[in-house]
Amino acid sequence: MRVLAAMSGGVDSAVAAARAVDAGHDVVGVHLALSRAGGTLRTGSRGCCTIEDALDARRAADLLGIPFYVWDFSERFRDDVIEDFISEYRAGRTPNPCMRCNEKIKFAALLERALELGFDAVCTGHYATLVDGREGRELHRASDEAKDQSYVLGVLTAEQLAHTYFPLGTTPSKAVVRAEAAERGLTVAQKPDSHDICFIPDGDTRGWLAEKVGAEQGDVLDRDGAVVGRHEGAHAFTVGQRRGLQLGVPASDGKPRFVLEVRPVSNTVVVGPKDALATAEISGERHSWAGRAPADGTFDCHVQIRAHADPVPARAAVHGGSVTVVPEDPFDGVAPGQTAVLYDGTRVIGQFTIARTVSAVPLDA
């Protein structure tokens, strides 16, 4: 099998490429240049896809004895990930750029080019498992629940899964991967994992958004519409947030208040008690299915609304282009723009972007 190994410069993708070579595949390594800022440097474990990462990927490919290339996807990344991130925040939603990157870059743009060049599959260092079932390939959780990345891969379609290769899916822990990398002589064996948003390497998302979206002062309201404070820009807030609220009017019960809603049109932020974050229903229309699609109607499943959240038992309903989910117990602090991934046991059914939420606590409660 001809395999294109996406090599980020980290330990996971390097070991994944090495295992593809060991399996006897014809492997070519590629690093994606996602930024046109030539001086972009890595700071500790912040960011990825930097100059250092490209060099680390090349050294790993050289050690494995495979061809290596750097492909410039910066324009596509800017349009499909960065601009989407900005527009979502501008609309008062909370996007997940890693989901968009997997959907639009790694398993769309990269896979499309790989197939055009005659490759059979794209190999990555994601922790997830592929199972070939009677009705096609299925995406399942990884063996290591702590490292499982099936949530951020929930955007993959059946066609994309058919050309995907995850060599690390059954690995019991990240420690095993690091030990294997050291044994192979890979210099990235102890390289720290990247975190935060890769195109905001200093971690100052609030400041970055203020520069891109603009910061305009506005009111902070309680659930009754009374002004209880001021803010420096609604884009800096997300549902469930407690820190950074400059409230001049204390709550009548003396308890902390949390962001319940962001209203970009009126440039206001609504706050209230923690109980009001309980969400009884979510729905959305921007959905995809990882394998066979469920028929219109209702079905039981588990739903995960964040990368590291626990899955929640729920009842899902699919009607035409809309998906609605009612959890057995309310979700806690769901924001429009987040991604809900549906599971049947360990198998990923599909995902949708949350567009509407229904509070479990009525306004007059």
UniProtKB/TrEMBL annotation:
<comment type="function">
    <text>Catalyzes the 2-thiolation of uridine at the wobble position (U34) of tRNA, leading to the formation of s(2)U34.</text>
</comment>
<keyword id="KW-0694">RNA-binding</keyword>
<dbReference type="GO" id="GO:0002143">
    <property type="term" value="P:tRNA wobble position uridine thiolation"/>
</dbReference>
<keyword id="KW-0963">Cytoplasm</keyword>
<keyword id="KW-0820">tRNA-binding</keyword>
<feature type="active site" description="Cysteine persulfide intermediate">
    <location>
        <position position="198"/>
    </location>
</feature>
<dbReference type="InterPro" id="IPR023382">
    <property type="entry name" value="MnmA-like_central_sf"/>
</dbReference>
<feature type="site" description="Interaction with tRNA">
    <location>
        <position position="126"/>
    </location>
</feature>
<feature type="disulfide bond" description="Alternate">
    <location>
        <begin position="101"/>
        <end position="198"/>
    </location>
</feature>
<keyword id="KW-0547">Nucleotide-binding</keyword>
<dbReference type="InterPro" id="IPR014729">
    <property type="entry name" value="Rossmann-like_a/b/a_fold"/>
</dbReference>
<protein>
    <recommendedName>
        <fullName>tRNA-specific 2-thiouridylase MnmA</fullName>
        <ecNumber>2.8.1.13</ecNumber>
    </recommendedName>
</protein>
<keyword id="KW-0819">tRNA processing</keyword>
<feature type="binding site">
    <location>
        <position position="125"/>
    </location>
    <ligand>
        <name>ATP</name>
    </ligand>
</feature>
<dbReference type="InterPro" id="IPR004506">
    <property type="entry name" value="MnmA-like"/>
</dbReference>
<comment type="similarity">
    <text>Belongs to the MnmA/TRMU family.</text>
</comment>
<dbReference type="InterPro" id="IPR046885">
    <property type="entry name" value="MnmA-like_C"/>
</dbReference>
<feature type="site" description="Interaction with tRNA">
    <location>
        <position position="338"/>
    </location>
</feature>
<feature type="domain" description="tRNA-specific 2-thiouridylase MnmA-like C-terminal">
    <location>
        <begin position="282"/>
        <end position="350"/>
    </location>
</feature>
<dbReference type="InterPro" id="IPR046884">
    <property type="entry name" value="MnmA-like_central"/>
</dbReference>
<dbReference type="Pfam" id="PF03054">
    <property type="entry name" value="tRNA_Me_trans"/>
</dbReference>
<feature type="active site" description="Nucleophile">
    <location>
        <position position="101"/>
    </location>
</feature>
<feature type="binding site">
    <location>
        <position position="32"/>
    </location>
    <ligand>
        <name>ATP</name>
    </ligand>
</feature>
<dbReference type="Pfam" id="PF20258">
    <property type="entry name" value="tRNA_Me_trans_C"/>
</dbReference>
<dbReference type="Pfam" id="PF20259">
    <property type="entry name" value="tRNA_Me_trans_M"/>
</dbReference>
<dbReference type="GO" id="GO:0005524">
    <property type="term" value="F:ATP binding"/>
</dbReference>
<keyword id="KW-1015">Disulfide bond</keyword>
<dbReference type="GO" id="GO:0000049">
    <property type="term" value="F:tRNA binding"/>
</dbReference>
<feature type="region of interest" description="Interaction with tRNA">
    <location>
        <begin position="147"/>
        <end position="149"/>
    </location>
</feature>
<keyword id="KW-0808">Transferase</keyword>
<feature type="domain" description="tRNA-specific 2-thiouridylase MnmA-like central">
    <location>
        <begin position="208"/>
        <end position="272"/>
    </location>
</feature>
<dbReference type="GO" id="GO:0103016">
    <property type="term" value="F:tRNA-uridine 2-sulfurtransferase activity"/>
</dbReference>
<keyword id="KW-0067">ATP-binding</keyword>
<dbReference type="GO" id="GO:0005737">
    <property type="term" value="C:cytoplasm"/>
</dbReference>
<feature type="binding site">
    <location>
        <begin position="6"/>
        <end position="13"/>
    </location>
    <ligand>
        <name>ATP</name>
    </ligand>
</feature>
